[in-house]
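[recover] target loaded
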């Protein structure tokens, strides 16, 4: 997976070097000391209703030549959509297969969280279909403002939903290994349903601001309409999104990552202390944890650094690399079914182990 990440970054460095010949300064000129919270900055010229062509509905935005080059460059129009297509070809059939298999299981309490994870991954991958068309069309969005908001909210919302599903599943495995008696007490269908509904509702609410801001803009002097990549930094509501986005990263990635790190560390420690041979399961758990960090850490770290650099230095160049790092999140969505299968096959469907209270307890290894 690290090789995939390096392969994604190499074209970015070559493309970035080429764009430096056009503009060596990525500093934003902010007339009123306001900051664009996430995407490329631009200055709104006039709403679409004031144009001579009445069919144009998007407001027109003025951006620098460097931003246009990054938006329409090879990385954005070829490499990113190619990565999305690969993830879709693998992830959509595999997640559908997982959903079909889980729907036939009788023990719902152990399936609900996995079912939620598969649904989240499938929705994320399906949201890539319009984004692939957008990138392959030279970053020209033709589906309208509302569709842009839906795709943006679905894409980012399901990323955080997937992270929280992984956190809940890892906690469930932790309880099964370290606290087996508590695990049997809490292993109820309504607990799993409540947990699943909770992170779905929280993820949906967290995406509400995406529907409150303009997402699509027509670039001045260019025959293209962008979706989410270029936004105006002049409005006060957009500036207020900076602390919101930072808190979203902290609660949506940093906090779950800390929990997952503690959980997998505890699982490996306790299994290593057991008299039974759990080496294969420990290796599989380490692999799952490592792939989680490789897929989700780069984009969230880059996004956090982007906010800090934008706020302190008024520069936006890190967003260019962030867009490519987001591809790794889509790769994780197509890898989830295979990782779950790997954990299942590293031990028998039911295993016996001696707990630290010297009692024998049957626990599903897939928990």
């Amino acid at each position: 997976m690290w090789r995939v990440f390096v392969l994604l970054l190499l074209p970015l460095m070559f493309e970035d070097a080429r764009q430096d010949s056009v503009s060596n300064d990525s500093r934003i000129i902010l007339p009123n000391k306001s900051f664009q919270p996430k995407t490329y900055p631009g200055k709104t010229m006039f709403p679409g209703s004031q144009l001579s062509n009445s069919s144009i509905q998007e407001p027109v935005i003025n951006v620098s030549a460097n931003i246009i080059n990054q938006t329409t460059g090879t990385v954005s129009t070829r490499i990113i959509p190619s990565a999305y297509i690969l993830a879709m070809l693998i992830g959509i059939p595999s997640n559908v297969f997982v959903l079909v298999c889980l729907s036939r299981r009788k023990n719902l309490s152990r399936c609900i969280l996995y079912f939620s994870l598969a649904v989240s991954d499938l929705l994320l991958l399906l949201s890539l279909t319009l984004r692939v068309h957008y990138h392959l069309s030279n970053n020209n969005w033709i589906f309208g403002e509302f569709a842009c908001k839906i795709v943006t909210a679905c894409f980012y919302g399901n990323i955080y939903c997937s992270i929280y599903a992984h956190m809940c599943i890892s906690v469930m495995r932790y309880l099964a290994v370290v606290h087996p008696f508590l695990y049997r007490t809490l292993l109820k269908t309504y607990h799993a349903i409540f947990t699943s509904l909770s992170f779905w509702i929280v993820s949906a609410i967290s995406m509400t601001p995406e529907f409150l801001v303009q997402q699509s803009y027509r670039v001045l002097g260019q025959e293209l309409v962008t979706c989410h990549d270029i936004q105006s930094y002049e409005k006060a509501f957009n500036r207020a999104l900076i602390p919101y986005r930072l808190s979203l990263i902290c609660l949506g990635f940093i906090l779950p990552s800390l929990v997952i790190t503690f959980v997998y560390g505890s699982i490996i420690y306790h299994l290593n202390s057991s008299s039974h041979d759990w080496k294969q399961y420990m290796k599989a758990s380490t692999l799952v944890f490592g792939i989680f960090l490789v897929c989700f850490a780069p984009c969230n770290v880059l996004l956090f650094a982007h906010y800090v650099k934008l706020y302190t230095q008024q520069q936006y160049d890190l967003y260019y690399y962030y867009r490519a790092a987001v591809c790794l999140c889509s790769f994780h969505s197509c890898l989830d079914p295979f990782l779950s299968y790997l954990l299942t096959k590293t031990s028998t469907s039911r295993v016996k182990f001696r707990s630290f209270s010297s009692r024998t307890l049957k626990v599903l290894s897939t928990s």
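[recover] notes: The chain has one domain: 42-361.
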